[in-house]
Amino acid sequence: MKISILFVLILLSLTSWSQNDFPNSGDAKIQDAKMVFQTTYWLPSLITMQDTHYNPYQTYHFQIESDGLKIKQDDTVNYQFKSGGDFVVRNGNILLGQGTPLFKLHIKDPIGGAALGLERGGKFWRFDLQNNSDRLYIGHSDNSSMFTFHKNGNFGIGTTAPDAKLAVKGDIHAEEVKVDLAVPGPDYVFKEDYDLKPLEEVQNYIKEHGHLPNIPSAKEMGTNGIQLGEMNMKLLEKIEELTLYIIEQNRKIDELEKDNDKLQKLEQRIIYLEKK
C-alpha cells in the first residue's frame, strides 16, 4: 500500500507536468528540467525533483508525513515508508517494524509472533522470537518448532528447551560419531595393583543388587539416561575384567590338563604293574 502511494504521487506529478494542470492552492513551478510541487496545507506534503548533474543539486524529496512516506537526500531521512513504522530504509539498513534500523535487514515486532516466513505451495517455514524469549525458533507450517537456538549456545532439534549444546528429541543417524573422553581409558585394569574382584564376590553383588558393580541399574539409566563416553569406558572396563578372568580360567585349565596327564600316566603304570 505504501509503495503504491509513492508511484501514484510520481504519476500525478508527471501528469501535472504534461497537462499543465495546476492546483487551486499551492505552487507549481516547471523550469530548466526541474519540477517542484509545494502545498500550504497543514500536512507537509512535498515533491521535489532536481537535476543531479551539478554538485549543488543534491536534494530530492518525496514527503508525506504524519506519518506516511519520506524519501530524502540532504535531510538525512532516506527511503522511509511508514504507517506506524512499517518500513524504513536508513543509511543502507532496512527496518520492518518500529524504531531505527540497526542491521542491513532489521525485523522488529514488539508484540511477538513469527518474524520471518518463507512460503511455497501453501507450506511455509517461519523464523521467530517469541514474547520475552531468549530463543530463536525455526518451525514449519504445522506450528511445530523444528529447531531452537538458545542465547546460552544450546541448540535443540525437535525440542524447544535444549538443555545441552546439542539436544535432539528423536533419532540420530550418522556414519561416525567421535566422542572426546571426559574420563580416563580403563587400561588401569591391567595394572598389577588393580583390585580385580573374585568371581564369587561379583556373583554375590549381582544377587544383592541385580546389576554389575560400577554399572548403573536399569532404573537409574531409565531416569537419568547415560553419558555415552563414560558408559563406553565402563563397558570397556568390564570387557577388560572379563579378559583377565578368562586368562585366569585358562591358566587353571592348563594346570588341570597337566595334572590330568600326570594322573593318566600314573594310572597306566599302575595297570602295567598289576599285570605283572
Question: Summary?
Answer:
Residues 1-18 form the signal peptide. This protein is of the alpha+beta class and 276 residues long. 30% of the residues lie in helices and 25% in strands.
Describe this structure in words.
The chain has 276 residues and is an alpha+beta fold. The protein has 3 domains: 77 residues, no CATH class; 65 residues, no CATH class; 90 residues, no CATH class. 30% of the residues lie in helices and 25% in strands. It has a 9-stranded mixed beta sheet with strand order 1-2-3-4-5-6-7-8-9, with helices on one face.
Oligomeric state as shown: single chain
In total, the number of domains comes to 3
Overall residue-averaged pLDDT value = 76
Structure class: alpha+beta
Estimated share of beta-strand residues: 15-25%
Strand line-up in the sheet with most strands: 1-2-3-4-5-6-7-8-9
Parts with pLDDT < 50 across at least 5 consecutive residues: 1-12, 14-20
What overall geometry do the principal axes of the alpha carbons give?
rod-shaped
Structural features:
276 residues; alpha+beta; 3 domains; six-stranded mixed beta sheet; rod-shaped
Helices and strands, with pairings:
Layout lengths: L1 H18 L7 E5 L2 E5 L6 E5 L11 E4 L4 E3 L8 E2 L5 E4 L2 E4 L8 E3 L5 E8 L2 E7 L5 E6 L4 E6 L4 E3 L8 E3 L30 H11 L8 H7 L3 H48 L1
Parallel strand pairs: 8-9, 14-15
Antiparallel strand pairs: 1-2, 2-3, 3-4, 4-5, 5-6, 6-7, 7-8, 10-11, 11-12, 12-13, 13-14
